[in-house]
Prior knowledge:
The complex is a heterodimer. By secondary structure, chain A is α+β, with helices and mostly antiparallel strands. Chain A folds into three domains: 6-71, CATH 2.40.50.100; 83-157, CATH 2.40.50.140; 161-283, K Homology domain, type 1 (Ribosomal Protein S8, Chain: A, domain 1), CATH 3.30.1370. Chain A has seven helices and 15 strands. In chain A, α1 (6-14) runs parallel beside α7 and α3 runs parallel beside α5. The longest helix of chain A has 17 residues, at 251-267. The two termini of chain A are 29 Å apart. In chain B, the strands form two sheets. A five-stranded mixed sheet of chain B has the order 1-2-3-5-4. In chain B, strands 6, 7, 8, 9 and 10 form a five-stranded antiparallel sheet that branches. Chain B is an alpha+beta fold. Chain B is globular. Chain B has one domain (31-237): GHMP Kinase, N-terminal domain (Ribosomal Protein S5, domain 2). In chain B, 48% of the residues are buried. In chain B, 26% of the residues lie in helices and 28% in strands.
Amino acid sequence: MSRGNRPGRRRRGREASAPPSAGERILVLPGEELPVRDLRPGHGTYRTGGKVYASILGLLSARPPFVQVIPLSGRYIPRPNDVVIGTVTDVQTTFWLLDIGAPRWAPLHMTGTPWKVDVGETGRFLRVGDSVVVQVENLDATGRIGVTMVGEGLGKLDGGSIIHISPARVPRVVGRSGSMIQTITRLTGAQVAVGQNGRVWIGGSPEAIHRVSEVLRTIEENGQRPGLTERIESYLLTTMPTGEQGPEPLPAETAHRDAPGARPASTDDDEEGDLADEADDAAGPGEPGDH
Amino acid sequence: MGSVGAKEVPVLLTADGRRIDGRRLDELRPIRIQAGALHQADGSAFVEWGANKVMAAVYGPREVHPRHLQQNNKAVIQCRYNMAAFSVDERKRPGLDRRSQEISKVIGEAFESVVFAEEFPRTSIDVYIEVLQANAGTRCAGVVAASVALADAGIPMVDLLPSVAVGKIGGAIALDLKKEEDNFGEADLPMALVPQSGRLVLLQMEGHMTEAELAQALDLGVKGCRSIHETMKQALRDRYSVAPLAGGSA
Lengths: 291, 250
């Protein structure tokens, strides 16, 4: 989905009615035969009788030597090094169990924290219902998810609220190189941390939290539409609370809180980042009177 | 209201091949599917099919409850089919009964044969089917709704699972029976088809048919399923369509 479609993308920006090219984003459904030659079945596909079919709903991505389907829905599927936000669901003597929105709960062992925790003392550090920022370390074949809380930007979250969005929308919320998230924090004065699992922590005044959650809902509903960052920006500008002129957040603190979400996005190493890129690019110039 | 003259058998099939609601023998009732009807669920769908209204919600893959059902090599699929107390004329006694247990089981097993459960060991995929209004063929409507909900939930599977019932009324094989046809007809044959392979993964029968009639019924049912399959795919496309650049960006 990355190199191959750049020409198509440019063409689309110029002429909206251009015929679908190889670069168009194609929605596929489970059981649909995929029109590919000489490509090996990757994620979200299966092969039977010499043909390749989609097994999940998503966007077709042919990136030799693989053809795969990029999911548009579903639970968070963890990948190593993802920074995620989790909620403690159980406290054991040597570890906590975290709900990170994945198929299974992720154990956070007491040695994976910045604290000195004694056996049996886990409950003094984190209780059921507490929220934390952790990083996925390893995954095994049985679906067990190992997470750690040692690292920059990781730790317990105090105050604020947590909003759930679809993990497939995370790249849009972050924006290219964090552009969307920067727009949101700049214009609301809130602090925002986005986990790759679609959990978003928002800190700040109740009004700021409310505005950010409204914006997140808009992004979730209009995730595939181009020009979203600009629309969100103009929405936030027009609904700026009267009286106070854009409360500027403390820069240092914001940077710290942004770390979890901003970092994976700026590395831009996978198709998801690419999707966000593409959609942002497609926005291009040709979208007047959209707001 | 309908119980006043319940003893009288209505004319199910007229001489010119019209049914009680004017349909031909091979015609489906109108069907409307909305994918993603609920917010909390990982996937959901609402199906209106004739006078049936069925909601399906899918949660998971997630931790298994109760724990002892967990399987260490694949996900378990837990399906619950339930009819609302207000879904039929006479109040239905709420809760599990023998009929809904059986339907839950056969629907769950149908999905077990299409979902790639081995991708999520030690987890559970929970499928809830709630019949809000019933008018015959609710298990088929339930399968259709649940299947769209599973796709909406991003669950990997071989294919969507269209489903329809074929029956025998007035001596003729007819597609998609409605309530009166089901009550007073001679046979009822619900089925669910995997379009990709042509396999049937749900097949039950009530009443009597000859071998030739059964063959004809299966043939008609498969055709009906393929038509419903298109409606299901369209429902998912409508929900996930990549917004066109021109127009409609409200």
